[in-house]
Amino acid sequence: MHGSLLEQIKKRRKSRGLRQEDLALSIGMSRQQFQRTEAGGNPRLDTLELIAAGLQCELLLVPRPLVDAVGQLERGELIYETVEDPWGEFLADCEDDDDG
After folding, report:
1. Which of 29, 52, 86, 94 could be a cystine partner for 24, CB 3.0 to 4.6 Å?
2. pTM
């Protein structure tokens, strides 16, 4: 589980080395309003979008089957298999068809 959205906001703010006051000022919000929000307030969607933008993030709805993959990606654990020439096999099949 990735924790609540407000916990994620606090974690992201701290990872960026920002104090509550720093982030609040950067997004045009009072320090008190930001403190209430981060401490468990019930912010409006536009407030969450503003905070996310200040943290260089986007709010995103993730389908439940993909939540684990997003967490792995976020932690740098998701490994992609790279294919040198993704079209090579397909094009080779097409060339074989032309010979027939």
Report:
1. 29
2. 0.68
